[in-house]
Amino acid sequence: MRLLSDSFGSGCQSTFILNVIFLPKMASKDAFVKKSLSVIFTALLIDILAFTIILPLFPRILNYYHVQDGANKDSFYYSILILVRKFRETIGGTGSRLDIVLFGGMIGSLFSFLQFVSSPVIGSLSDRYGRKNVLLLSMIGNAISMLLWIFSNSFFIFVMSRVVGGLTEGNVQMSIAMISDITTPETRSRGLALVGIAFSLGFTVGPPIGAYFASIDLLERFPFLKAYGINSYSSPAIFALALIVIETTYMAFYLPETLGFKKDAAKKSSAAKTVASPVDEKAAERTLTTLSLFHFLFLFFFSGMEFTLTFLTYDRFSFSHAEQGKYLALLGVVSALVQGGYVRRFAHKVVTEKSIVIQGMLSCSIGLYLIGVFAVGVDGVIWLYVGAVFLAFTSGTVVTTLTSLASLTISGTKINQHDEAPKGISKNQGMILGKFRSAGQLGRSMGPLAACSAYWILGSPVSYSIGSFAIGGLALLMHVAVPNGVIKGKAKAE
Questions:
Q1: Dmax over Cα atoms in the chain, in whole Å?
Q2: The pLDDT of residue 312 is above 50
Q3: Which of 102, 115, 154, 176 has the fewest Cβ atoms within 10 angstroms?
């Protein structure tokens, strides 16, 4: 928390650390880019901390509402529970514990599905009214979502908090758009890796914070608050709201507007006078469609198998909450190291973005197979952690570099042509990136339920093997269907 509080003031320590460790050395003329990246990273890290606080609490929160409304046939919770039980019976599952698992999967899928719906709209609005303005409006929606969670004495209000949050969450999307606004093809992957690093750090630190604040039951200390809608899990919601307020205030004062940055730069340079031809635009649209399909398919399989990891570790090794936390923390730390030490240093300079995506997919295929087939018995724990390292490499590479490829395509830079001054910068970049992200969110919303069903019907070894071969097949298709990239200083495709 010291890091977050220091970052809020001028001369912040976290910005200094970010500048030294993560940001490339820049001349004074690039001070705007350097400042923008620092603010974007800091704000996004705070946002993801607020977002991930709830993740380890879903089972307990759902159990809280189950105890409160599970026997009330007139309650909203009971009506949804009946649907969950019918789905559980359809997939051949047994036991009330699976009801909570499926319930959590449905709530998580709802959030991602709403992101699928809202992402293109948020992106389009940012193209028209500016990235900063739309981002600040989305933060108001996030704050309302947290307020609903604080006063969610009924399950219906809790679900409404997730609906509002899913429809208005725009920080990740706007961060990607803003970084794309201010970076060149050479630095695009390096800049977008900051988004992945923020995710990795947030997912490592946020859940333990949520677990800590969940231990503070306000109703035990102040029973009279129940009359105002406070519930047993309002404490983490209050802390998350505080983070949202800090983030919003920080961005309002320090975040510059990035929309039109390259257009302004183009006016000062004769290098950007030509406009992309209609043929190039059609080719870019085809490439974007292909990349969006890969984004959807990858996250459908990856997020689904990732969702079942906690079930597997519990079923095979009886992992406690603490052991689950350590396992997930390993994934987060290794992923951050991969993005900071590999993607940011080598993408577009030594290795093409396409090559990194394929490497990440193959790593995922290996990791899923090791976990599904070899992580069995007493000695299986070793393979469980070996597989986790492969999955962490995947987490740190695929989505970041896929997004970079999409961004490069939008800006007019052909994937198989090195161009440090892209022509034909799209005026609809926010909307197009929103559609690209939307495709991934649709996969993320469908994956957990599909994977959970396969897990309980076919068993973990078969379902993980299917996931392994499916993502391995995606890697092969990626090699065939997407144009080869280039690296700095090489005009010839790989």
A1: 71
A2: yes
A3: 154
Q: DSSP characters for 448-479?
A: HHHHHHHHHHH-HHHHHHHHHHHHHHHHHHHH
- With bands split at pLDDT 50, 70 and 90, how would you rate the model's confidence at 41? very high
Average pLDDT over residues 288-307: 94
Q: CB neighbours of 84 closer than 8 A, spacing ≥ 6?
A: 99, 102, 103, 106
- Between CA 274 and CA 341 the distance in angstroms is 36
Beta carbons within 10 angstroms of residue 257's beta carbon: 14
Nearest to 391 by CA among 438, 455, 333, 313: 333
Residue 151's CB is within 10 A of a number of other CB atoms, namely 17
Tell the burial category of 430 from Cβ atoms under 10 Å away from its Cβ (0-12, 13-18, 19+): buried
Helix (H, G, I), strand (E, B), or coil: what is residue 186?
helix
Rounded CA separation 260/256 (Å): 12
Under 8 Å between Cβ of 304 and 450: yes
Residue 322: name the closest of 204, 208, 214, 213 by CA. Answer: 208
> What DSSP assignment string belongs to 187-211?
HHHHHHHHHHHHHHHHHHHHHHHHH
pLDDT per residue as tens digits for the range 259-285: 877 655 545 544 444 444 444 667 778
pLDDT tens digits for range 461-488: 999 999 999 999 999 999 999 877 544 5
| CA gap 124, 436 in Å, rounded | 12
CA distance 51 to 457: 31
Radius of gyration of the chain (CA): 23
Report the 10 Å Cβ neighbour count for 494.
12
Q: How far apart are alpha carbons 393 and 396 in whole angstroms?
A: 5
* pLDDT bracket for residue 123 (50, 70, 90): very high
Q: Give the integer Cα–Cα distance in Å for 37 and 39.
A: 6
| Nearest C-alpha neighbor of 288 from the set 476, 471, 414 | 414
Spell out the residues 6+ positions from residue 271 whose beta carbon is closer than 8 angstroms to its own.
421
Other C-beta atoms within 10 Å of 92: how many? 10
Query: Of 422, 387, 488, 129, which Cα lies nearest the Cα of 275?
Result: 422
What's at 176, amino acid-wise? Answer: I
Q: Which pTM value belongs to this model?
A: 0.83
